[in-house]
Amino acid sequence: MDAQRDEMLRALQDQVDKEDKSNYSSWVTGKMPQTLATTRCRFFDRHGFIFVPDFANAKEVDAMKTTMKEMVDINWNPKTETQVFRTDEGQLEAQSTSDYFLDSAAKVHYFAEIDALDDKGELKAEYQSDKIAALNKAGHGMHLIPGSAFQDYTRSEKVGNLLRELGWQEPCVPQSMYIFKQSRIGGEVTSHQDSTFLYTTPRQTCIGLWLALDDATLENGCLWIRPGSHRESLRRQFVRNPKHFGESLAYDGSGDEDHTEPKMIFRQLNDNKNVTWEGSIPKDATLPECVGLYEAGFIPCPCKAGDLLAFCGELDHLSLSNYSSKTRHTFQLHCIEGKGIEWSKENWLQYPHDVSFMKV
């Protein structure tokens, strides 16, 4: 599978090598770079992603996995915190019925896999003694934990250098999360663009840094991306519902809130008639052939532990369910441009007024 990936990457690189450089512009700035762009920067701007092998070493990977297990053992009480995380048709209900999701912006909250819970919403018996195996994700302020492996990695010179190489001038980090993609129950992540949830103005500047902490394969749910889709318009925006929060989008006591309304809603921005799978998975995506994914323009990106995928916030991507016997842990940073860019007050993720996004 790695050989197939490398062959596809070479074919995409050939397109970069043959392009007219006089028309080249940066995705994040929308302008021609003032300095000569590197080869992988030009690849990133043309195709919307880059693959960086061995971005993190084994020590960093092990430290993050060990830290995560310790945090779950000490901090997660599934008897009081069993909210699930979903990206399918149940997403709005799962993320809009309590404050647990919204309150995770600058903290670390834990979200379970729906198949790890029984009809009463409690952990099934097989997970009682191995509760980390029941989790879907932890987030969204992993990078804010002082002295942790997650903060050390986020503030590492290589992360900042990569972002600046790709065109970010003053990168900062609104969000980080640890995705578990558990063996046998790790749910699919449906087709989406990250800027739907991390919206900036006057242009989109979100970049995802997707770090594999386990080998990611077709069988355990590696990432699938659709090269070039970052040149399409953003399809949806996940926004705070003014009917719930009031026009201020905060509980300010103004009297125009209706707390019976959902906290979050999707706003349709552009109806791309060629993309019929938004918020779902293209038809005929069953392993091992995955015919429907290839026909829709997606390619799989298997990774070894320590490999990194960096991709634009408007790039269409997804991952399939993990029915294998192997987990697929990842640590993910989402960064934005901090210079001349505004973070939308409609975004679900809002830090306390006295907390700023971390600069890297």
Plain-language structure description:
This protein is an alpha+beta fold and 360 residues long. Helix content is 21%, strand content 20%. Strands 1, 2, 3, 4, 7, 12, 14 and 16 form an eight-stranded antiparallel beta sheet that branches. The protein is globular.
Strand content: 15-25%
Instruction: Tell me which oligomeric state these chains represent.
Output: single chain
End-to-end separation in angstroms reads 34 Å
Number of helices: 8
Kindly state the mean pLDDT as a whole number?
92
Give the H and E element order: HHEHHEEHHEEEEEEHEHEEEEEE
DSSP helix fraction: 10-25%
Tell the overall outline: globular
Poorly predicted tracts of residues? none
Tell me the Rg in angstroms: 20 Å
Q: Provide the structure class.
A: alpha+beta
The major beta sheet can be summarized as: 8 strands, antiparallel
Question: TL;DR?
Answer:
By secondary structure, the protein is α+β, with helices and mostly antiparallel strands. The chain has helices spanning 2-18, 39-47, 58-75, 91-96, 149-154, 157-165, 242-245, 291-295; strands spanning 49-52, 108-112, 135-140, 171-179, 189-192, 200-201, 207-212, 223-225, 236-240, 264-268, 299-301, 308-312, 317-319, 330-337, 342-343, 358-359.
